[in-house]
Structure formats: C-alpha cells, structure tokens
Amino acid sequence: MYHRVLEKKPEKESRWHYVTVSEFRKQMNMIERWGYTPITFSDYQLFLEGKLTLPSRPIIITFDDGYQDTLENAIPVLVELNIRAVIFVMGNRKLKSARWDELDDLGSCPLMTDEQVRTVQKMGFEIGAHSLNHTALTSLSKIDMTNEIMGSKEELEKILGSPIQTFSYPYGSVNERVKKVVSDSGFSFACGVYSGAAQFSQSMMDFRRLAVNQDTSRLKFLVILLLPYQYIEWLYARLKNKVTQDIKMEVQSSVQPHSKNGTIKPESFDVHNMVNPNSL
Questions:
Q1: Rounded-to-integer distance, Cα 178 and Cα 250, Å
Q2: pLDDT one-digit tens code per residue, 183-206
Q3: What is the distance between the alpha carbons of residues 258 and 265, in angstroms, rounded to a whole number?
Q4: Which long-range contacts (CB under 8 A, 24 or more apart) does 247-254 make?
Q5: Which of 186, 189, 187, 184 shows the shortest CA–CA distance to 202?
C-alpha cells in the first residue's frame, strides 16, 4: 500500500507516508525480478467467477487518496514496467487537496481532478473509492457512515460511467459495523491496513495490506516480498492486543473502588481514560 510518491525526499520529514520515485522504481523492479505479477481486484473477481486464471505469484499494488503525484510520478514508472495497480480516490470531487495532510511540512497535497481520474482509468488502472471526505468511519453514526461510503461509490460512478467495486477504509478505521455498510452499499471488496486476516481471501471486506513508506528499506521490502510478512504482522497485532487487554484488566482490578467489607462497588470505570492502546 502506497500513499505519496515524491520526486525527492522532502527537506523536512513528514509524518505521512511517502516514497521517492527512485525508491519506488527499485521496488517495482524487485517485484518483477522475483517473479510477481501485479493484478487488480477486477482480475480477482474474474478469477472467483471462473473466468480468469491467476498467475503463480499474483500481487496487488494499491495507492490511497488519489494524489496528483501518483499520476505524475508513480504511473509513468508503472506504465514503463507494464505494471497494473489499484488507486483509491476521494468521492467528494470538490476536494482539490488532501486537507488531512495540511499539517505536513510538504506543503500543498493536490488531488487528481475528475479528468485525471478518467485518464488513469483509461490507462488500465482500477479506480476504487476511499469515502467522500477521508473521515474515520468508525466514529460516525450509521447515517453519516452510509453517506460517506455509498456516496463515494455513487459520485465516482457518475464521473467514470462504470461500476466501482472496491473500497479502502480511511486511516484503516474499520469494525464490523463499517464492514456491513460497505457490503450493503454494493462493494465487492474492501481494504484495511492492519486489521484484516493474514490469509488473503479470508475476508472480502477487510483485505490486510502491507504499508510501504519512507521507512521501508530495500531489505525490509525484500522481506515483505519473500517471507510471509503478513502473518508476522498479524501475529504481532494479536499479541499487542492481548497485552493491551491484560493491562486494562490489571488496571481495572487495581483501581476499582472497594467497600468496607472488601467487595467491589458497582461503579463504572473507564479504563480507556488511563490506558491508550496506541501507545503500547
């Protein structure tokens, strides 16, 4: 999973994900060198319908947000190497730049225009939806969530004139409630980041992806390609979650008010105010 592809490393580091064009080219060359064949989710759908045979080592390359630098810097490399990819863009076509990136030191982060999105699709790249406004979906009411999800599908289908079947969760923010709305909205596939199962086809509404960014060395990229890295990340996430739950239980047990006879008072205690799972 990629975000921004920049011509050169920014003078000041950014908290957002990026790779330089030179590193991106080297990574794509490694994919070719080790015998992987990039496919799209449309290809995978045809495979599920028995209409297409997948290559021996398929891989899906995705880009989130639909930045203009995806068009300007990444796509020329992909076209040169005959590599296909899936690009998730915003459904709110009034968005001209990635406002969620405004705190970056990179300056403006322009997004692709309608015409550019159409051009990218005509070049053979699959377009997917990334919500209307890049909102963390788990924080929304069902009505607002449905609007973000279904609305993005409807808006993109208007400008492209073809079905949008794949969705990407902004910030990887997903739970069972969100998955159901995505499925009910008519999407066939959806991508998270670290939340999905390690096995590729286990959950069509939460494909686990491996993030590639400025901290991904060539050695790590090679490890991601050649080893079952998704299982390693999945196991790490499970262990991290278990540790978090154990700490919550320990904290709750140690601070819960007791009555004079030693029994726990029936009072609620919000452990989340004391333990931030993201800091573990």
A1: 30
A2: 999 999 999 987 766 567 778 999
A3: 5
A4: 247/275, 247/280, 248/275, 251/275
A5: 189
- pTM, entire model: 0.80
DSSP code at position 50: T
Q: Please spell the DSSP secondary structure of 133-174, one letter per residue.
A: S---GGGS-HHHHHHHHHHHHHHHHHHHSS---EEE-GGG--
- Closest CA relative to residue 275, chosen from 260, 257, 254, 258: 254
Checking if the pLDDT of 59 tops 50, the result is yes
Local structure of residue 264 (DSSP, 8 states): B
Residues near 93 by beta carbon (within 8 Å), at least 6 away in sequence: 114, 155, 159
Phi, psi of 240 (to 5 degrees): -60, -40
What the block records as the tokens of 114 is 């309608």
Terminal alpha carbon distance of the chain: 24
